[in-house]
Amino acid sequence: MEKVQTSRSFTVPIGPQHPALKEPEHFLITVDGEIVTKAVVRLGYAHRGVEKATESRNWVQNIYILERICGICSHIHATAYCLGVEKLAGVEVPPRAQAIRVLVAEMERIHSHLLWLGVAAHEAGFDTLFMYSWRDRETIMDLLESLSGNRVNYSVNLLGGVKFDVDDELARLIYDGIDFLEKRTQHYLDVVTSDAMFLQRTRGIGTMTRSQADVLGTVGPTARASNVYRDIRVEAPYGAYGDFPVKIVLDERGDLEARFVVRIKELFESYRVIREILDNLPAGELSTRMPRRIQEGETVSRVEAPRGELFYFIKSNGTDTPERIKVRTPTICNMMSVVKLAVGHQLADVPMIVVGIDPCFSCNDRMTVVDRGQGQRQGWTWEALRRYGIRHYQRLAR
Amino acid sequence: MKLGTMFQDVSSSFLRKPVTEKYPFERRTPPTRLRGTLVWDAETCVGCGLCATDCPANALEVFVLDRKEKRFALSYHPDRCTFCAQCVSSCRHGSLAMSNEVWELAALDRTSFTIHFGDETDVELALAGKTASNAEASSE
Predict the structure, then answer these.
(1) What is the CATH number of the domain that holds B89?
(2) Which of A80, A240, A302, B22 has the smallest CB count inside 10 Å?
């Protein structure tokens, strides 16, 4: 057979249903041989209408629907919402409740980072690391279950405080769990920085310079791995982070290895903060009274989720339901870096680059974008979509 | 740069028992705070209905038959319940709690997904009233 040589590039569609992706998202990767020349991402397959749904529920009910935006960082969503609503209502949360919120947030960060470590190792084909890190993650899941009564949606937050207290017996359980996890985490840090096979997949792959990370607007550990000083816990401490400060973890290299190192080192910081909180847990009430109707106004609430900055805009019109809630999750900020970084790498590196930002696709899908082709793209507001729907059915009726 | 950095983890695991649990043959004692099915205490309830107002999943229905005589009934739908325990926090009289013993709620028919709390005659009265008001609403 005659060998045909062509200079045409080839486009590989990945997703929305694909074995390498755990969630529905579409990547259109143009390759020249094995080298990626262009990458396009299309979001929006997991749109659930959460923001609209909040407008027909009262302030209390909304804690739980917002908590379900993300299954991994459920607590931080509820915390961001509660902090915003409390700010609007002018309510001061008792210090003990604030400390417990931070305690659970840091426990959640441990669970999220260990989960990510496993997923990332799995994408690299290092299933041993995946299985052991997930076995150890059970320790923190059990602790969260003992604290709150549920493994995933902890529902620790209330408007004006928290539901669950931390007693001495529970504190001892947490100390023991943290001691065990700290040893294991040190081992994992050694593994990801010394395993020759694994380093082939991470060292020098997906390198993002500091200026790139800044321009692309990356957040969280993805930005910190490129030496960008960006952590809401440090820059604008909320809740009890003022009393229990966190040291920022930075890395200069900006490649996938740096992202592993930053996330794992953040675990040590979480262990330290958890111990500090348990040692100096302020005494007092767990919650304070909240009004049913929140006074008119709008506010912004920013917190550091395990994946980066989580942003809430909350607007109240003085009734018992919010007028508008807008959520911006960290994955949407980091997604553009994937599209930029994939270019120039082998197609085989793309899953690792995607997983490097710790993506949570279901979190970020909350808007309709209409692609008319020829580069024309249009974002639709709810009102425009509503008007379109009415006009469409009017045409059909004629 | 090393090879087989996790070899020791794997080799030592050969001598250890598997960490997976043999559920349902072996059951762990659930934590005391586990949020299982809802329990209602009729004695302390005042029928304010705040639990039903705050429930994010509409899993609760409170029927006030006679406020003076303290005759209330409560319908609970475990299939809609998200086990968030907001009702337990909303209740100012401590009438609600979540059991840490009853949490295996799978069933083959839907009837077990509606639990009626309260005196038997009160529940019947409440349900009759609900059917009547539903019929009224649908005829309008």
Answers:
(1) 3.30.70.3270
(2) B22
Specify if B9 maps to a domain.
no
Question: Do residue B85 and residue A129 have CB atoms under 8 angstroms apart?
Answer: no
Instruction: Report yes or no on B121 lying in a domain.
Output: yes
Q: Checking DSSP bridges between strand B60-66 and strand B71-76, what pairing results, if any?
A: antiparallel
Q: d(Cα A297, Cα A316) in Å, to the nearest integer?
A: 5
Q: Chain A closest CA to B139's CA: distance in Å? A: 26
Determine the distance in angstroms separating the CA of B23 from the nearest CA of chain A, rounded to an integer.
16
Cβ atoms of B85 and A163 within 8 Å: the answer is yes
**Per-residue model confidence (pLDDT) at position A366:** 54
**Residue B23 covered by a domain:** no
pLDDT in tens, A300-354: 999 999 999 999 999 999 999 999 999 999 988 898 898 899 898 888 888 888 8
B57 or A395: whose pLDDT is higher? Answer: B57
Structure-derived torsion over alpha carbons of residues A190, A191, A195, A198, reported in degrees to the nearest 10: -130
Domain residues for B121? 37-134
Interchain contact, A149 vs B100, CB within 8 Å: yes
- Tell whether B81 is covered by a domain: yes
Digit-coded pLDDT (tens) for B22-38: 988 988 889 999 999 99
CB-CB contact of A378 with A372 (8 Å): yes
Question: Looking at the 3D structure of chain B, how many domains does it have?
Answer: 1
Give per-residue pLDDT as tens, A133-180.
999 999 999 999 999 999 989 999 999 999 999 999 999 999 999 999
Q: Please say whether the dihedral angle defined by the alpha carbons of residues A89, A92, A94 and A99, taken in this order, is positive or negative.
A: positive
Identify the structural domains of chain A with CATH numbers, from first to last.
Answer: 50-328 (1.10.645.10)
